[in-house]
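Lab manual, section 2.4: Encoding a predicted structure.

Procedure: take the sequence of the chain (194 residues), apply the prediction step described in section 2.3, and record the output as structure tokens. A sample record is shown.
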Amino acid sequence: MGSNPTLRTTYGTHRIFAGKIVETLLWLHRNGYAESAIRPIGRRLRHMAKHSDLDNPRDVKRFIAAKNVKNSYKNNLCDAYGYYLRVHGVSWTKPRYKPEERLPRVPTTEAIQKVIARASRKYATIFSTLRDTGMMPVELERTSLRDIDLERGVINAVGCKGHKPRALTLKPSTIAMLKRYLSENPNDYPFPTS
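Recorded output:
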């Protein structure tokens, strides 16, 4: 299928590629990619399918290059498209979009305390745990009951996204909140998805 401007402007064009996108996402699932990685890849592929011909790498490159977004997002679009092409046996030369490096914006202690004070009891516990440990939400999500030692006030964090596993200490006030939270949520994995 070549690049067809009429095809791109027709309502529902992305439906032409829906089956191929689903096939790509199933391939990712079968190859052990996390659900949290598969969902955004699917969103990106559907977005590109609405504005370009996924079977034409030149058209997709044109669309990505013209998009007024940060290089990091363009790079994510290229990665998602790379999976699509890999599954469907098409090769391409991936464009190079180097993400800009920025310092993270760290909230003040007062701002964090305001969020915790206004949160429900459940989320006040979760936010306090994240504040005390510096864990990523996905690390807390993957924490099981056996990873929590309330006697010593320690959580053994599962390493995710390049972090190593580590033992993290909780403040006494957070331990008290966590004891109540765990009595109300006795599941093996008591924390909600990130």
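Check your result against the sample. Residues 5-87 form one domain.
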